[in-house]
Inverse folding.
């Protein structure tokens, strides 16, 4: 799954189909954040929901290549601390 540009509450409807596919997948989900410039907490909540549902089926979500401002948001909302959420990329400084 790829997130790019700006993602906020007003774009939530456009990402529903991709979120539904991610939940139904039989594999871990990789989310490419390299082209995401702005996001609000609604995206982080959607990613947390996917992570929770995947975890119940023994799968995980990998957040890849987030820009510094997105990494800060991930850390502020605590997404990186959820079981089944993995962070990869140059700014993935938190454990």
């Amino acid at each position: 799954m790829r997130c790019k540009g700006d993602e906020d509450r007003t774009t939530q409807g456009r990402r529903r189909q991709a979120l539904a596919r991610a939940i139904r997948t039989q594999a871990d989900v990789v989310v490419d954040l390299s082209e995401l410039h702005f996001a609000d907490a609604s995206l982080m909540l959607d990613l947390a929901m996917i992570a929770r549902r995947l975890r119940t089926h023994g799968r995980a979500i990998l957040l890849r290549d987030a820009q510094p401002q997105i990494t800060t948001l991930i850390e502020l909302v605590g997404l990186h601390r959820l079981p089944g959420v993995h962070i990869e990329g140059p700014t993935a400084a938190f454990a």
